[in-house]
């Protein structure tokens, strides 16, 4: 029995260039590559450990690409078994995009909302596979979630979960690996952590994060990205990490001034890459407006010459953290913050606050709040209306 483990494909994302279709396509292309590997390797099923989509209400395009790719699997009788991550998680029953794929007969869903743990036996070409699916959940639900984990009755069993393990050593986590009955399973397929990671010193069963298929920003970037081929034919699972080729590379240059950029660009060596890399430029000193403009021009020229696909500029904050001050292609590069740009653009305190809230909003709650604000403050609404009319 052969499986391909894939995770965190975030279809629909275009990070770090929100709204760029070029970048959005990267996520579709590498997903397609993973599906083609599954077909080439004649696997019985593709196991997806969550964040298939980047949004729980995807626009049509990510659906189209997902359906196209998953149809190729269905034609070959390869099952696609998936749990929801926090990105494609239903806020209420039946509302996850995974549910749509399930209704279309393109996915076997093993959990779509927090606490929706499933223990099932799935019929594959080469036999029965017992699967426990744990979709993303908040840490406070751990006890309830763990009580629902019941290894199914089957000769071969896998556990799929979209969780961060305590053992990763990150600031936040869901549970420790010791809380899961891993010994009951032949393979543990994990998602949520975007970096490839194999839990050390455990031969049986392997506990694996393949990592995401694309990096969402430079912090997540690694030179290699993988899908994992899992052979369950023998008594112990045999793994093969397969390197993906069609993901976008990131490069980073740390420079003081424009001269240093010109010297470093030549050394990028991006000519033999399948795709031109995204370049992050980290500035170690503050540039004048003139120098900043020159830097942007140089970088735009590098895009035109096909050295890089796009760029972002980073400067260090006073606290030593990284601050992004500009991105490529038309976005103005300066040493001012996004907040300052919004202020400068709208020149009205009320509107500025509104736009800032919208820009930084991450939930429907914020939108509700903003609407409430508009209803209460008619003058703000009037000003906004005028602005829209002028555009
Ligand atoms: Mn993810």
Describe this structure in words.
- The chain has ten helices and 16 strands.
- The chain folds into three domains: 2-243, 4-Layer Sandwich (Purple Acid Phosphatase, chain A, domain 2), CATH 3.60.21; 250-335, no CATH class; 342-390, no CATH class.
- The chain has 391 residues and is α/β, with parallel strands linked by helices.
- Helix 1 runs parallel beside helix 2, helix 5 runs parallel beside helix 6 and helix 7 (338-346) crosses helix 8 (349-360).
- Strand 2 (45-48), helix 2 and strand 3 (79-82) form a beta-alpha-beta unit.
- The model is unreliable at 329-337 (pLDDT under 50).
- The strands form three sheets. The chain has a six-stranded mixed β-sheet with strand order 4-3-2-1-11-12, covered by helices on one side.
- Manganese (II) ion binds at residues 8, 51, 85, 87, 192, 194, 212.
- Residues 8, 51, 85, 87, 192, 194, 212 line the site of manganese (II) ion.
